[in-house]
Design the sequence.
């Protein structure tokens, strides 16, 4: 079920190892330089004196993170141990590593990233900058434990909220303008970027006279819409109710049949565990266990289809069926937790696709599709920085007003903000006759991916 290293790089979440190391070292140097400047200004020190002073952070949330680490002995213990447990190779080869050296260095690097907009790179794109900072620390014993703690996930949610606010502001464009001065080859407006993104799908003619094609912030650029989705993503066999189409531009990760209600989703094969995947709506009052069990029980023995979204692709979700949405909600979860079964692997977050379907922040749609498909579930799963799962507000309002929302194939369901991510479709037992997409296939929105038995 695991993704290969090649698939991970193809997704654009983290760059190849050599580029990752160069990016990490560059960020560490920028963070140190910025720290000296901030210390000198705040403490009125000379540059030499400022080098050894206490860290000074630009963002309140990073100061709060430091206070949490210092005040909570369990978190501090895991933090110290996870940095110490980084594989010996990098400890012995500091000139060639991208490992963290201290808690303060981690905080300084996060503080710096929160004010930077990602740059384009055809070969070394860093789609998850905070993930790229933490990287190996997530795949060691103390890191496995740390990133499952509620307090840590609550803190990272606040950090990512600050990052999302920045990327959703005009300041994200100002950051790009400044960075382009030194890194013009990494402009999102470059010919290489336009080709990689296939911008003519979104703008025709392409606007080239502004920092980001005329979008007013990074996030609006990131979850951009097609010019003419009916032409660019035509529905395959639109009149055939037996056909399920892809909800995302994505690459197929796995297809599992005969899934169980409860399973060991944390082991190497990462089998799906329906009770954990299809968690209840956290907004509902306690005491809805029976309704949740009834929903889950309908999918026992059924099928799960999972696919991941590359960082440079279209990041909106579209309906895979005609039918009625019965429920739609976001399930809070982890941000940097990965499967222990993947051990000390820098690709661990991306090799944990099945695992994160059970524990990461995700949006869940329960849909009564037109027959013969019947009841299905769709999950849009956040990964690391991409945990802003935004459900179409019109859908939420219609459900609130009428109890359900009619939907057609390719209708907008919502979108992710920034980075790469994953998705799942869950089907009842005996519904799917055949899957028309195979593992590692690249599929577009509205392409046929499965066919249901007709009658």
Sequence:
């Amino acid at each position: 079920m695991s993704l290969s290293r090649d698939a991970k790089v193809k997704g654009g979440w983290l760059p190849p190892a050599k580029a990752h190391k160069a990016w990490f070292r560059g960020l560490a140097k920028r963070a140190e330089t910025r720290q000296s400047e901030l210390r000198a200004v705040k403490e009125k020190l000379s540059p030499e004196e400022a080098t050894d002073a206490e860290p000074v952070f630009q963002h309140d949330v990073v100061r709060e993170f430091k206070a949490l680490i210092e005040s909570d002995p369990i978190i501090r213990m895991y933090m110290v141990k996870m940095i110490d447990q980084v594989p010996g190779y990098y400890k012995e080869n500091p000139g060639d590593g991208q490992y963290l050296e201290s808690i303060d260095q981690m905080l300084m690097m996060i503080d710096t990233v929160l004010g930077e907009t990602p740059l384009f790179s055809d070969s070394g794109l860093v789609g998850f900058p905070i993930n790229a900072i933490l990287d190996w620390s997530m795949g060691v014993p103390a890191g496995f434990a740390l990133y499952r703690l509620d307090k840590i996930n609550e803190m990272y949610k606040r950090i990512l909220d600050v990052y999302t606010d920045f990327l959703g502001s005009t300041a994200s464009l100002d950051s790009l303008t400044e960075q382009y001065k030194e890194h013009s080859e990494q402009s999102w407006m470059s010919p290489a970027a336009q080709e990689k993104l296939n911008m003519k799908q979104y703008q025709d003619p392409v606007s080239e006279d502004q920092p980001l094609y005329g979008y007013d912030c990074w996030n609006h650029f990131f979850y951009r819409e097609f010019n003419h989705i009916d032409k660019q993503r035509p529905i395959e066999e639109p009149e055939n109710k037996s056909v399920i189409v892809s909800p995302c531009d994505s690459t197929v990760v796995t297809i599992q049949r005969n899934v169980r209600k409860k399973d060991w989703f944390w082991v190497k094969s990462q089998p799906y565990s329906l009770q954990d995947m299809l968690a209840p709506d956290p907004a509902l009052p306690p005491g809805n266990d029976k309704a949740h069990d009834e929903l889950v029980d309908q999918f026992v023995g059924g099928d799960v289809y999972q696919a991941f979204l590359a960082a440079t692709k279209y990041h909106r979700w579209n309906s895979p069926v005609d039918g009625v949405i019965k429920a739609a909600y976001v399930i809070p979860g982890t941000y940097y937790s990965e499967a222990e079964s993947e051990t000390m692997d820098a690709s661990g977050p991306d090799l944990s696709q099945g695992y994160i379907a059970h524990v990461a922040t995700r949006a869940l749609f329960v849909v009564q599709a037109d027959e013969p498909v019947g009841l299905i579930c769709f999950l849009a799963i956040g990964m690391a920085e991409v945990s802003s799962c935004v459900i179409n507000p019109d859908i939420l309002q219609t459900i609130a007003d009428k109890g359900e929302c009619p939907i057609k194939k390719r209708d907008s369901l919502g979108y992710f903000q920034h980075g790469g991510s994953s998705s799942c479709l869950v089907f009842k037992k005996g519904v799917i006759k055949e899957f028309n997409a195979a593992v590692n296939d690249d599929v577009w929105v509205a392409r046929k991916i499965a066919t249901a038995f007709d009658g």
